[in-house]
Amino acid sequence: MSSAAPTAPDAAPDQAVRLADQVNRRTRAVRLLAAVRRHRADLLVALLWVVLAGWLTHGLWPDPGGRTLALNPEDQALYEWFLAVDARALLGDFSLLTDRLNAPDGVNLMANTTVIALGIVCAPITLLLGAPVTFALLAAANLAGTALAWYLLFHRTMRTRRLAAALGGGLCGFGPGMVSQTNSHLHMTAQWLVPVIVWLVVRLLRASDPGRTPAGSTRALPSGPDRRRMISSAVGLAAAVTAQVFIGEEVLFLAAVTLLVMAISYAVADRDLARRALPGFAGGLAIAAGLALMVLGYPLWFQFAGPQGVADGMFSPSYFSADLSSWWAISPLSIAGSDQASRLTTGPAEYNTFLGWPLLLVTAACAIWTGRRRLVFTCVVAGLVMGALSLGPEVVLGGIRTAVPGPYALLAGLPVVDGALPMRFGLALLPIVATLLVLAVDRALRSTGRARRLVPLAVAAALLPIFPTPLPTAARPEVPEFITGGHWKQCVRPGGVLVPVPLPTPKEPWPMRWAVAANAGFGMPEGFFIGPYGRGGTAAMGTFKQPTSALLADVARRGDLPAIGDEQRRQAARDADFWGASCVALADDAPHADSLRATLEQLYGPANRIADAWTWRV
After folding, report:
1. 92-121: b (≥16 Cβ within 10 Å) or e
2. Are 197 and 186 contacting, i.e. CB atoms less than 8 angstroms apart?
3. Confidence bin at 3 (pLDDT 50/70/90)
4. Which of 122, 392, 420, 467 shows its CA 20 to 30 Å from the CA of 385?
5. CA 446 – CA 460 distance, rounded (Å)
6. 3-state secondary structure of 526
7. Degrees (nearest 5) of the Cα angle 7, 8, 12?
8. What residues have CB less than 8 Å from 616, skipping those under 6 apart?
9. Are 121 and 83 contacting, i.e. CB atoms less than 8 angstroms apart?
């Protein structure tokens, strides 16, 4: 035997390490399998939501870059641009005042619904696969995530039966308002943090109650507030609120108003609890608010008073009010809906109040049958208040203004409040109605009489007419190879300003897709955004057109060749200098491309052909 051969003592340490690794891997696998078995029912519910969300958005999946949501393609182009700009945070190129649109002034990202947190989290997907893929993923994930979060709140926090919780979670995540808002309003459908906020508020309230039931006891004893849980709840609430601000402030506002109404209602229903818990609860909320403001103070100042910031809402509360008759109508995006109902709202992305008369009747019956529970009373009051606020400053019935003032008239003009659309208060009814249905179904499932079957069947029958249908999609033009092939870098340096012809507008933001395809690698003038360009510096959509931009837009619309003289050429040079532009580009598929090219050659001289675009250095 060779003297170089390893002896048993030499080999034992390595072998022991390998055996330990194998044991550890097996232990982890066993634990994972045990966790899957333990939570398999919850995982199946989550899988159901994912499949349903994927089915509703399946029209985007064959080609996210070449497909668009047919009912709101303009906002989809805007949100894809938001996601492309947000993703630049991963490259170290991000600011709350972006210079990638509205050159030279830029755009205040906090004053726009830019879903910053989602964009940054999904930045790797955006940079690798493109913003359209990220948009499609978020459109589906928001629906499934919201449904799952509410399901867990109903099942784990409220301790309701799984079937009841699943019905409630499904309504919260896939109700008519949520499906409607999925038409390109990512900031409104990302509601999966709202149940977390509700849970933390409830946890804080319970910890603040000195008469709570201590561990190991079967009845409430005056044991004092649980300060450790109060602090942890306050810290968690501050974190959740902060994250939601960078996802969607309007959702946070609606949740806060709803919780305020519910808190007041619950205090009226249970005055003993209010007296016991109010000091600690108020203190915990103060801690949460203070912690949140430490992070949010500067961004909120930047939103309202910073560069390009706006301090008011730009939408008319009277126009964006819910029609009273829309409450018992069924959404056109539901299986029992009709296109005729669309006249009761402002557009297909705002079917917020279309719950349908079957669901309203069953919900009322469930509220009565469930009994005089404090939570039922609180939900009924909150539902009535939020539903009334959705009617706006003047009640509209069947498209006719009744001259009857709505409760919203009391809030109109208040700071922050006027930035929310009245009809979106109706979105708060989904979790409120869901809670009432969950309580009723759970009570029925725990009983032994006929209600055990009748109540779940009645709830299912009421939900069936509003079951959602897939969102309509359509093909959209390809982005020019001049952009997708990276040829734009021959015309403008990264970070510079490229002028697409015609320039993007709120009604026709399609050139912003050029920037999306280039991961916002360059800036452009004008565009689709909210900025201080209204009368007196108030909020407005888009900005003023420069003379050259207006001239080119007119050519693109009519195809007529304008008279170009020295004054127009001097103005074109001044406008290019104002924008800080390096290059003007005209794609082959532009409207009236020949007329636009002839006009541009008179303004800027001979064109240079790059890939499938004509370019002019300016």
Report:
1. ebbebbbbbbbbebbbbbbbbbbbbbbbbb
2. no
3. very low
4. 467
5. 17
6. coil
7. 125
8. 583, 584, 585, 600, 601, 604, 605, 607, 608
9. no
210's CB contacts (< 8 A; 6+ apart) are 222, 223, 224, 225, 276, 277, 280
* CA distance between the termini of the chain: 84
Continuous H helices in 270-306: 271-305
335 Cβ neighbours under 8 A, 6+ residues apart: 464, 465, 466, 467, 468, 469
pLDDT for the residue numbered 23:
63
Strands 400-405 and 394-397: antiparallel
| Contact residues for 269 (Cβ-Cβ < 8 A; gap 6+) | 374, 377, 378
What would the two tokens of residue 268 be?
């009226």
For residues 446-457, one letter each, b for 16 or more C-beta atoms within 10 angstroms of the residue's C-beta and e for the rest, the string is: eeeeebeeebbe
Average pLDDT over residues 18-42: 75
Contacts of residue 54, Cβ cutoff 8 Å, sequence gap at least 6: 61, 140
Dihedral class, residue 522 (left if φ above 0, else alpha if ψ from -120 to 50, else beta): beta
3-state secondary structure of 269: helix
Above pLDDT 70, what percent of the chain?
A: 94
Q: What are 306's two structure tokens?
A: 């910073």
Stated pTM of the model: 0.92
Q: Which residues contact 270 (CB under 8 A, 6 or more apart)?
A: 374
The H-or-E segment that residue 17 falls in is helix 8-38
Alpha-carbon separation of residue 236 from 120, 201, 204 (angstroms) = 21, 10, 10
Give residue 37's pLDDT: 80
The tokens 């708060």 sit on which residue?
A: 428
